[in-house]
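TL;DR need C-alpha cells for one chain.
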Amino acid sequence: MRIIGNLRRLPLWRRLPLWLALMAVLIAALLIAVPLTAAQTPDTSQIAQTTADNNSADSGMELQPVFNEYRGIKIGMTADEVRKRVDKLRDKGEKQDFFVLSDAETAQVFYDKDGKVRAISIDYMGKGSDPPMPAEVLGEEIQPKSDGSIYGLKRYPTAGFWIAYNRTAGDDPTVTITMQKVAVPMSN
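>> reply
TL;DR here they are.
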C-alpha cells in the first residue's frame, strides 16, 4: 500500500509511463495465456474425420455397425428381455439398470419411457479387463494420441444408433463403449 500511496503523490506526467508499463505487462501476459489455453482444447480432428467418413455420400450405401449388441442386449429391447439375458444385476430401476459382471467390467443399460433400451454403456477397467479393440467396435483402427488415449465415434442412422469408443490415458486405462439410440426428428 505504501508504493501506491507514493505513486499518488507523483505528478500525472510521472505516473503515466508507469501505468503504460503496467498495461503492457498485462497485455503481454494475456497474449501468452490465450494461446496456451487454446492449445489445451481437445483434438476433434478424429471425431470430425470419423463423422465425415461415416456420413460420406460417395459410398452409395451406409456402413453397417460391426458392434451392434453387448452380451445379447440390443437397442430397442425391453427391460425384461435384458434382465433375462444378463445376470449380475446390481441395481434395478425403471430408467436404468446397473450390472457388475466382474471387478473389471460393468454395464449400464438406460431405458426410455416405454421401458425399451435407449443406451448401453460398458466400462472395462484396468489392464486385466480385456476390452474389445477399436476395430472390433468401430470397424477401423483409431490412432492413439501421444498419451495413449483413444476416442472414436460412428453414427449409423439406418441402424438407429451411434457408438463411441473411449480409452483413457495411462498404464491402467478404462475403456468405455457407448451405444445410444438416435433421436428421431419430429415431422411437421
